[in-house]
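User: Show me sequence and structure for the first protein, then do the same for the second.

Assistant: Starting with the first protein.
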Amino acid sequence: MLAVPGMASLLGVSLLARTAITASGMALTMYVVLGLGMSYAAAGGAAAAMTAGLALGGPLLGRMIDRRGARIVLLITVVVQIACWLSVAVLPYAPLLAAAFAAGLLMVPAPIVTRQAIAVMTRAGQRRAAFALEAVQGELSYMVGPPIVILCAARLPSGVVAWGVGAAIVAGGVGIALLNPPLRAWDEAPAAPADRPRRREWLGPRMIAVLVMAFGATIVLNGTDLAIVATLEEAGQVSWAALVVAVYGAASITGGLLYGALPRPLPTWLLLGLLGLVTIPAGLAHDWRWLCVAGCGAGLLAAPTLSALSDAVSRLAPASVRGEATGLQSSALGAGFALGVPIVGGAIDASGPAGGFAAAGLAGLAAALMGWLLSRRSPVRTRSVRGDAGLLGASDAR
């Protein structure tokens, strides 16, 4: 896959941007707590403002990319990021919330552009492996970004750390704009606004199924992180949390690479259902060693599930609205991350860490079931990634 022209450079620059974007919430948290001397609840408010902006901005930026192209949207968002991150470290709390929301709303759309470009730069037989690499890239960003911010915040002023994260986001956005990866195949002519399919023509049961499963998948992943911390806190082993999460991430990367090499894909609802199913027994672990064992089992299914979701969106969305569809996918993923904490946190408060793992796993199973039911609805006609008309069967909900 890395031998595909332009793929290695795209994934490399995108990894920089996505790592910085992933670290941005932690950078805000560190600034509010250490720089402003406020509570973690206040820090959570700033992170929530950015998350809300990200959730709303995904479809907006995707639609702008469909109409104006990636480069102009990337450059606009880069300018916004420069203004927001330069001001973050000098703002009091109330204006900081507005800046965080604006930064989220007009965040550099690195994941959206990367997924669209992968759909165009690869052949049908390569696409699943390419999206597996993209999912591994996302896992690496979560493993690397927040820990780097925490380490830097222990040694540098939190405002400087925030500026550094903003600079990395800007560098990633400029890099992708310079690469200007193709977002349409040679036989996919840009559609005039009047020719764009109406949303109800492509946002049907199968696409809704994928979005529901994306939402459920990130509830499982974010809820699992919270339940791991709660389990280790109860056992007096919080210092081992980083190792347990790293083992989970390494297992996810391994699973993504293995899934990309499989000769045939697996249905997304099956991958998500298995992920939810193997998450529930992790509640039986009561120390870091058994959590590492449980993390290996669940982690192997994390990246494959996320890559299958991206693959499904790329095949279900017509070329002229692929950006908007990918933006909706990003919003569904972000909503799952945002709601995973209160859902699983409430279960932990009510019944302990085991209840947190159960809540996360059951949320995944429920989303998988709903995705399976929706994917069984009658197929709809749309256009494939290469512009060939075709009838999408149940396999295209994978």
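Switching to the second protein now.
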Amino acid sequence: MFKVGLIGCGNMGEAIVKGLSRKIKSTDIIVSDINPERVEYMVEKYNVAGSSSNRRVVENSEIVILAVKPKDLEETVSPINDSFKGKVVVSVLAGISIPKLKNLMKDSFIVRAMPNTPALVGEGAIGVSFENDSPEIKEKIIDLLSSLGTVVEVDEKLMDVVTGLSGSGPAYVFMFIEGLIQGGIKGGLSYNQSRELAVQTVLGAAKMLKETGEHPSILRDKVSSPGGTTIYALHRLEEKGFKDAVISAVEEATKRSKELSK
């Protein structure tokens, strides 16, 4: 019996496997995917077990993680829905609600999770909701997912917001970093110089925010000297609607997540 079975070996599936390998033995993980080459890649790179059969993965695992595309959910689980009986099923599919998952896998215990791609380096942000309040299962799943990064339990009705904020969030941050790099290059720095400074700036700012526990506006004001460079830059960002654009991005991704659930 494997501790974890994974169905779906895309980018998120790979991030999950790499993260879980820090917590449990890779040989305790079995994976499957519609693409046999992807399974072979996962087996060779991460030393997990691989299978061409989704049913075998489910029947031989204590916990099953579903990481297929939302549009492929029914096609994936319907032919083998009897095999989910008594299993803990963790879905990372954007927009697919617990009731819909339960309808497809009636005799299983459903957990809905939304990790993000930084899970690949152990720094993911994972929102999680549970079908019910079983303390034993909650503890087990949260402990397991903590190998991917920070786990935050939320009400299931807020999972679409989690998707819009942290699920899609890395893309917003990467775009911001890209802008910092290009700004440095425009000013005369080399790409490598600009990249190193930009990445460390974002990393350091995030760590400072996390460790101090202060509100972002307080830390922002500490950087902003009267009449200095930062306040001029912040004024321009406000003129360009920077914060409003970020809020709108989260709202749009949340809206799309809700649309996927219909």
